Amino acid sequence: MTQAHIFPVTIYYEDTDITGLVYHPNYFKYFERARSEFFDGEKLRRMQHEDGIGVAVYKAEIMFKKGAVLGDRLEIHSRPEIQGDYRIVFNQQVFRAGQNALLVEAKVELVCISQEKLVRMSQWIVDRVESFKNEQFTA
């Protein structure tokens, strides 16, 4: 399996529900934060404000295997893949830091939109994914 971009998350009381587990929609927040960090949120903001292009979730699939709890330190592992001119897929997984047991996994498909219309993936996004893949082979 290819190397992943890793984003750390700490679970706080506000993240959990009455069962003591992370409230399931919060994983979508963690995945979004990891993708924003991968791309650099400032670059995404500039693309939106200067070019009128935003990144939108087109499709998301998620599978919950085991819940995280208060105090857990998690790692969000993200593996991006360009799929054509209009779509990028992020395979994302959640692990407790330092452990191999998979807690949650998701496949999130992203597209670029402008004025609510599909547009080609911005070149800097494609370049970021390609440079990340190349970093893996030289490391």
Protein architecture, described:
- The chain has 139 residues and is an alpha+beta fold.
- It has a single domain (5-138), classed as Roll (Thiol Ester Dehydrase, Chain A).
- It contains 3 helices and 6 strands; from the N terminus they run E-H-H-E-E-E-E-E-H.
- The protein has helices spanning 26-39, 41-51, 123-138, and strands at 5-10, 54-64, 73-82, 88-96, 102-114, 117-119.
- Strands 1, 2, 3, 4, 5 and 6 form a 6-stranded antiparallel sheet that branches.
- The protein is globular and about 45 Å long.
- It starts with a strand and ends with a helix.
Task: Briefly characterize the structure.
With 139 residues, this protein is of the alpha+beta class.
Question: What is the topological layout?
Answer:
Elements: E1 5-10, H1 26-39, H2 41-51, E2 54-64, E3 73-82, E4 88-96, E5 102-114, E6 117-119, H3 123-138
Antiparallel strand pairs: 1-3, 2-5, 3-4, 4-5, 5-6
Which stretches are low in confidence, meaning pLDDT under 50 for 5 or more residues running? none
Helical/strand content category: alpha+beta
Sketch the major β-sheet. Answer: 6 strands, antiparallel
Distance between the termini: 15 Å
Number of domains: 1
The CATH superfamily bears the name Hotdog Thioesterase
Residue fraction in strands: 35-45%
Rg, Å, rounded: 16 Å
